[in-house]
Design brief:
- One of its GO terms (cellular component) is membrane.
- It is found in: Membrane.
- The structure is a single chain.
- By secondary structure, the protein is an all-alpha fold.
- Helix content is 76%, strand content 0%.
- The chain has 20 helices and no strands.
């Protein structure tokens, strides 16, 4: 299950963030993206439908079927990605980016929702980390692959940057068609386990958190879930973590170019920070599950992100700034599965998990909008306002994390004293 989902999410990340690579490969000149705020506009319009459509997507996921819905999403955005190779103006490119965001919206929240229903609370971060690592590693080497594709520039009269969209879009469509045979359903709807094996899975989940049997999501339940302040705290923290992650994804090649490296070297130097990020994601995911702690490791990774932002933003040495990119990417990438696990561990019932997962991840889309607007063309090459904004987000994340940790400790103390947590099972304790 995890390799298939990891591969598909890697494709999603590549298709979402290869805009910066294509820009460095000549799209900037051909579509005049260097004028005014055009590049920022083309970058952030993707996140409008991506943010809005995540919630309704999770609502219909069980009715439509996980396999059918995720396959439809992958093939559809692959077709849009391919079409981006034939646009003739930045406005056409922006329209394609809107469609890309619409079709990708249902994929990630649905994917995380499904994974969290299969595993117990202290197994889930390693699994989220595993599929995320697959996507990071593949996505990290995508600039090298994109560089190879740029060597096709001029073939059939097609510019180098367009070949990136065309070939990667075709690969996405192919992956989407093949994935239909492998994408899993929810545990109670799966078709690849025997009835006895399914009962073992459901029994483990029931013993751990008591929600193996799915409950129906109604409007009344939805409104009740949305009134839970903890869900909004998780969403804000996720927003804060994604801002530097998206900034690296969209601007790392451009930042490296500003340090004096050639286009080829800038593309090649993009990969190593992602290898480092993959290592940190798995290390912190393993530690977090082993010690059954979330907040302390999220805080450590946020500190790493802060250090990386300071080095990249305020040091003159290109080598030190490059080290800063390693730390920023590693810290922010590790926080993402950590926060998803933190949220999932402290959420009970399928209906609330559907709402919470969509809400939290949609705030990641808001983080993408924020990142693409605070890293402005006018601030090239250092992007200092964007660095300041990213630093502020990390401080806000730490403040929210402190608040939820204090609250969870107090509520767990009530359980140990025999008092029941309102709205939770009598024996349920929060994961700190």
């Amino acid at each position: 299950m995890l390799p298939v989902l990891g591969m598909l999410y890697a494709v999603a990340l590549i298709d979402r963030t290869n805009l910066g690579i294509a820009r460095a490969a000549g799209m900037d000149h051909d579509l005049h993206l260097d004028r005014g705020s055009r590049y920022s506009i083309v970058s952030f319009v993707y996140f409008i439908p991506y943010t809005i459509l995540q919630f309704p997507s999770n609502v219909i996921l069980r009715k439509v079927g996980v396999t059918n819905w995720l396959t439809f999403c992958v093939i559809s955005w692959g077709a849009v990605q391919l079409a981006m190779g034939f646009v003739s103006s930045w406005i056409h490119l922006a329209v394609c980016r809107v469609l890309l965001g619409a079709f990708e919206a249902g994929f990630f929240p649905g994917l995380v929702f499904v994974i969290t229903t299969w595993y117990t609370r202290h197994e889930v971060q390693k699994r989220l980390g595993a599929f995320y690592v697959i996507s990071i590693l593949i996505g990290g080497f995508s600039p090298i692959f994109a560089y190879v594709l740029t060597l096709l520039g001029g073939k059939q009269g097609i510019p180098a940057w367009a070949w990136i969209f065309i070939i990667e879009g075709a690969i996405t469509i192919l992956f989407g068609a093949i994935s239909w045979f492998f994408i899993p359903e929810f545990p109670d709807q799966n078709k690849f386990l025997t009835k006895g094996e399914t009962n073992v899975v459901l029994g483990r989940v029931e013993k751990d958190r008591g929600d193996s049997v799915p409950d129906t999501l109604t409007l009344k339940k939805m409104l009740l879930h949305l009134r839970d302040w903890k869900m909004w705290a998780f969403a804000i923290m996720y927003f804060c973590a994604t801002v530097p992650a998206y900034a690296i994804g969209f601007f790392v090649t451009i930042i490296l170019r500003s340090m004096g490296w050639s286009i080829a070297n800038s593309l090649l130097l993009t990969a190593p920070p992602y290898i480092f990020a993959a290592a940190t994601v798995m290390l912190f995911s393993w530690l977090s599950d082993k010690y059954k702690q979330r907040a302390i490791f999220i805080a450590l990774q946020t500190g790493i992100t802060l250090l990386g932002l300071f080095l990249t933003g305020f040091v003159d040495s290109p080598f030190v700034r490059y080290v800063g990119i390693f730390l920023t990417n590693g810290g922010s990438a590790g926080c993402i599965p950590g926060l998803l696990a933190y949220s999932a561990n402290n959420t009970i019932s399928h209906s609330k998990r559907a709402v919470s997962t969509a809400m939290v991840i949609s705030f990641g889309g808001v983080g993408g909008i924020f990142a693409t607007t605070v890293f402005r063309q006018s601030d090239f090459p250092r992007y200092i306002p964007g660095i300041y904004a990213s630093i502020g987000c990390q401080l806000l994340l730490l403040a929210c994390l402190t608040g939820t940790t204090i609250y969870f400790r107090l509520e767990n103390l009530k359980v140990r004293q025999g008092c029941r947590i309102v709205g939770q099972g009598a024996d349920f304790v929060y994961t700190l």
